[in-house]
Amino acid sequence: MKILTRIVIILAVLQFGMAQAQTTAIKCGKLIDGRSDTPTENVVILIEGNKIKEVGKNVKIPASATVIDLSAATVLPGLIDAHTHVLLQGDITSDDYDVQLLKQSIAYRALRGSVSCRTALLNGFTTLRDLGTEGSMYADVDLKKAINRGIIDGPRLFVGGRAINSTGHYPLSNRDYAWEWKVPKGLIEITGPIEARRAVREEISYGADWIKVYADRSYYRLTDGSFRSLSNFTAEEINALGDETAMHHKKMSAHAVTRDGIIPAIKAGAASIEHGFGIDDECIKLMVEKGIFWCPTIYVNEWVADGRAAAGSTMNKTFTQTLPATFNKALKAGVKIAFGTDVGGFDWTENEAKEFSYMVKWGMTPMQAIKAATSVPAELLEMSGKIGEITPGAFADIVAAKEDPLKNISALEHVGFVMKDGKVYKNQFVGSER
Ligand SMILES: [Zn+2]
User: Fold this and answer.
1) Ligand 1 centre from 240 Cα, in Å?
2) Residue 27 falls within a domain, yes or no?
3) pLDDT, position 174
4) 188-190 β-sheet, strand order
């Protein structure tokens, strides 16, 4: 094609794009922008296409703009859950997990996953970091594709693919299947640094954005009250996982509950620690020094504690008693706490926003909790300036609640307006006008 023809086509496409870019103005009663510590009142957000163009009190609204009136609401950035499992539908009991892996095809689980995605979006979560498909192979990559292509409704997904553990340490929950049967696994098992590297390469080749590893298991408590566990990897293995991840400019997330998982994971370059219920002073110090994020996944622990205790496993129950003080200590020490719930570990019928109330009850201000679900995880995802904030240039991912979440954080369990990428998915506020 001649260069001139090419230029004409490009210009025509650009012009068409500009003509199509719709302008929307949102009138906000109160605005929490995800960055500032104080809210502002009676401001306008001007959106062009899928991006925020202007935010302020004196924004001129063009006559052609669609006006959305949220003057009776508190408006904030679309929420981010940095630890989810869209392909899992709750696993309190052993059967809950095994039934999903043994009796449900990946196609069936993906269909259910598409519903989880829609649920998350309508609950106000416009971005999820999904950390492991639990036996659904790379169906998370497909869900992400289907969302990005507009086939199904869902949040922006950053996906972790299959997740990685060492051989033999991630069985189905019921451990007594006859050994002749090759039962499915919830993730990739590796032994040795070569298999570790191969697994990371496979994950990335199929479209994983994050490498999720399981750094420890079998948590227990010593008589002095401290928590320990069994490390899943040799130093050689976890270092190979971290090194290979970094080599491809990806980031590693580590399921690690006590120092036996947390410290080797951090040394291997993990960007975030998942759960960390048994985190101790040395871990806290190391995380602050290195700027490692912590997803405390409080609600899932509360959700499973009683059921698992009844089945004879009492550690989650113990953590419900110790986690408030641990959380408060890490918060005061300055650990970067990112909102991450592990939803999917509990049923999607439970709104993941329930996590907020625990964070506030245990020491965060409501504004800190909101930032933990907006600008803080945006930094973890290397998306600062693009998501988790309402500022010029950011994607128009915007939610609103009728009640002020700064006065009552549980207001975020009742989000009445959801916009993602400039498109409105939910609006329960009257007064929308053209
Ligand atoms: Zn999880």
Assistant:
1) 22
2) yes
3) 72
4) 188-190, 164-166, 210-214, 251-256, 272-275, 293-295, 336-337
Q: Compute, in angstroms, the gap from residue 90 CA to the centroid of ligand 1.
A: 11
pLDDT, residue 369, reads 98
Measured between alpha carbons, how far is 8 from 31 in angstroms, rounded to an integer? 42
Give dist(CA 101, CA 132) in Å, integer.
13
In a shared domain, residues 160 and 68: no
Q: Say if CB 229 and CB 178 are below 8 A apart.
A: no
User: How remote is the CA of residue 136 from the centroid of ligand 1, in Å?
Assistant: 14
How far is C-alpha 293 from the geometric centre of its chain's CA atoms? 12
Between the CA of 15 and the centroid of ligand 1 the distance, in Å, is 45
Burial of 127 per CB tally in 10 Å (0-12, 13-18, 19+): buried
* 289 & 170 share domain: yes
Closest CA to 28 of 72, 67, 59: 72
128 CA to centre of ligand 1 in angstroms: 12
pLDDT tens digit sequence for 348-380: 999 999 999 999 999 999 999 999 999 999 999
- Bridge partner list, 176: none
pLDDT digits (tens, 9 = 90+) for 18-75: 556 899 999 999 999 999 999 999 999 999 999 999 999 999 999 999 999 999 999 9
Sequence-distant (6+) residues with CB within 8 A of 292 are 266, 270, 271, 272, 273, 286, 335, 336
Q: Are residues 41 and 88 in the same domain?
A: no
Residue 250 alpha carbon to ligand 1 centre in Å? 19
Confidence (pLDDT) at 96:
86
pLDDT of residue 12: 56
Please check whether residue 374 lies inside any domain of the structure.
no
Number of domains in the chain: 2
Banded model confidence at residue 8, pLDDT cuts 50, 70, 90: low
Residues 108 and 72 in one domain: no
CA of 281 to the centre of ligand 1 (A): 24
Indicate whether 1 pLDDT > 60. no
Residue 417: domain span: 21-78+389-427
- φ/ψ region of 151 (left if φ > 0, alpha if ψ in -120 to 50, else beta) reads alpha
